[in-house]
Specification:
five-stranded antiparallel sheet; alpha+beta
Length: about 110
């Protein structure tokens, strides 16, 4: 399993995970849910207590990925498989983004 922290305007909003079977889960942190002033990170991922599940990387996160020649350069330089969308997201969305969302890889727990 691979996990990433999802930040909204420098505050940690939740966790995105790719399970060993390739599916994805997104969940807001309880502290984010408890604060009525915090909004959902996306219209397609409204603020809720339930976990979101998907067979594919959620469209909101997929649309943050580089495309075309930019994707090719990043994949070659960082040695990422061009079909590893989660790996590409964790590599590019930690700093090189437009908007309020950042994706920071979580280290494996022993």
């Amino acid at each position: 399993m691979r996990k990433a922290k999802i930040f909204y305007k420098e505050e940690e909003a939740g966790v995105l995970a790719q399970l060993d079977d390739g599916t994805f889960i997104f969940r807001y942190h309880d502290s984010w849910m408890a604060d009525n002033n915090k909004m959902g990170i996306s219209l397609t991922l409204p603020k809720t207590q339930k976990e979101y599940h998907s067979k594919y990387l959620f469209p909101f996160f997929y649309n943050m990925l580089p495309e075309g020649s930019n994707k090719q350069v990043v994949c070659k330089h960082m040695r990422i498989d061009s079909n590893d969308y989660f790996g590409l997201l964790m590599t590019t969305a930690k700093t090189d983004i437009i908007g309020a969302i950042r994706v920071i890889k979580m280290e494996q727990e022993s």
